[in-house]
Every structure is written in C-alpha cells, then in structure tokens.
Amino acid sequence: MSAQAESWHAALHRLQREGVPHALATQVTSAGSTPREPGARMVITADAVYDTLGGGTFEWQTIAAARQRLADGRAGMSLEAFSLGGRSGQCCGGFVNVLLEVFPGSTTTLAVFGAGHVGRELVRLAAPLPWRVRWHDSRVDAFPDWASDQPRLACHQVSDPTAAVATLPPGVHALVLTHDHAEDRALVDALLARGDTASLGLIGSKSKWASFRRKLHDAGHGEEALAGVRCPIGTAAGGTGGDKTPYAIALATLAELLPRVESPARGDQRGLDPAKLRSMLTDEPHK
C-alpha cells in the first residue's frame, strides 16, 4: 500500500490519541549510499503507511516486520539491520539500521449502554484513561455535543441496542444503565449469552436485580454467569446515607471497575537488549 498523505508526526499523534495499534520506524544509522538519512521516519498500521524511508524492498521488509509484530501483539522496540544489496535486494550498496517501536494501542474496551446522567458522567470520567469507549443509546440526540471531540470514544445511536452487543470485541467490559428497565434486561440477557465479557455491571437496586435474576435464570442463564453480574454498581457512593448524585455514582462505578481491568504485562527488561544494540551498531551488517 502506498504511503498516505498525512505526515508521520501527524499520524503518530492521531493514532496515539485514538488508541489505534501502530509502529514507528526510525532510520537510526546508515553507511554508504542509502535512500534516506538517519532520522527519517514512517508510521505503520495494519492497513496504512504514513511517510517513507525511501521506498524499495528494504522499506517493504520494514513494513512487513512492523505488521508482524503488530499482529503478534509484541509491543516495545526492536532493531532491524539491512544491507542494501544483500537482504534487501537493492543496489544502493549501503547499510541501514531501523528502530521499530510498536505501540499496542488501547487494550481495553468499555461498552456503555445509556447516555443519561450517570452515563454521561461515566464517559467523561473515563476520558483520561487509555481505554476505547463505545457508547450506545436508542434515543435520538441522546449524546452531548462534547462527545464528538473525545479521543477513543465512539457514539452509536441504535434503535435496538441488543444488536450492538454482537459487534463488541471479546473481553469487553460492559456497563448497562439505560433509561428503560426492559432494555436493561434485554441487554444483560444478550451480554450473558455472549459468554466472553470481561465484566458486566448493571445500574439499579437490589430488588431490580432480584427480579432480573429470576427472569434471566428462567431464560437459561446459569448461576455462575449470573453471579458475575455486578448490581447495583457504584455502591460505594449510593449506599445508605451515601452520595447518590450521578457524578458520585459514576466515580464509584469506575473505582469498582479499575481493579478488573488488566494492565499490559511489562517485563523487567525494557527497551532494546544492550548486547544486541551494541553488536548492531558496531559490527558491519551481513551482506
């Protein structure tokens, strides 16, 4: 695929803001005749390329290496060495080292059903977190104007919110807080039927959940699945004598959710392996 018109630095800013997986390729050293100079950069995603390292076979090999790391979910840095006449099949005769930095993007998706008072506060409070948020409501004009400018946020006005459940990625964290009890129950039913949600929370009272639980059990959902539904949510704020304002309930709901969201694993060794870096920067690449 040819490079997109957007510059690498504009694409890098946008992709990081949106939480899209991507890789930054930087030419860090060169010797002899090479298409570009050290410091040249390009950004690579699964289906697009922004800017160029000069074209040719070695650039396509860089793109392939970046996309393989993206597909494997291997975040972090690696150093690729190219002999322009050997591995790359080019005739420049020079040597190039390219640093690949792979960013996994947002690894957590939060699905919020309902754009009422609590839903709005939830989405607003979640904005600084590195999550992708998918916000659904069946009502027309339910979303506030500020939602259109939020990074990693997608608003979906859908006549049947249960149909949107099928579009969610595996491992989604879901919060159900619509304006309608029947819609809430249909959504919980559909989310439980998926069987792959990371967590599921429902707004409401204990009596509401007791009624839902009986009907969901009669619909065929087992005790283990039903036990995984958190209802009420935001109990730290909305308990007896607590603050029941939308902001407080939203804040408490996110506090309950945070321990359930897994952080990407990080090993003790970060960055490039020192021995490999030293070898690649001091030894002549293989022809």
CATH class of the largest domain: Alpha Beta
Which value, in Å, is the CA radius of gyration? 24 Å
| Global shape | elongated
Taken as a percent bin, the fraction of beta residues is: 15-25%
Average predicted local confidence, pLDDT: 86
CATH architecture of the largest domain: 3-Layer(aba) Sandwich
Q: Name the strands of the widest sheet in spatial order.
A: 1-4-3-2-6-5
- Uncertain residue ranges: 265-269
CATH T-level topology of the largest domain: Rossmann fold
The CATH superfamily of the largest domain appears as: NAD(P)-binding Rossmann-like Domain
| Biggest sheet descriptor | 6 strands, mixed
Number of E-state strands = 12
List keywords for this structure.
287 residues, alpha/beta, Rossmann fold, six-stranded mixed beta sheet, 10 helices, XdhC_Rossmann_dom
What does this structure look like?
The chain has 2 domains: 3-105 and 267-282, no CATH class; 108-260, Rossmann fold. It has helices at 8-18, 57-72, 117-126, 161-165, 181-194, 206-218, 223-227, 235-238, 246-257, 274-282, and strands at 3-4, 22-31, 41-44, 49-50, 76-83, 95-103, 108-113, 131-137, 153-157, 173-176, 199-202, 229-230. The protein is an alpha/beta fold and 287 residues long. The chain is built from 10 helices and 12 strands. Helix 3 packs across helix 9 (246-257). Helix content is 34%, strand content 22%. The strands form 2 sheets. Strands 1-4-3-2-6-5 form a 6-stranded mixed β-sheet. Helix 5 links the parallel strand 10 (173-176) and strand 11 (199-202). The longest helix is centred in the first third of the chain and has 16 residues, at 57-72.
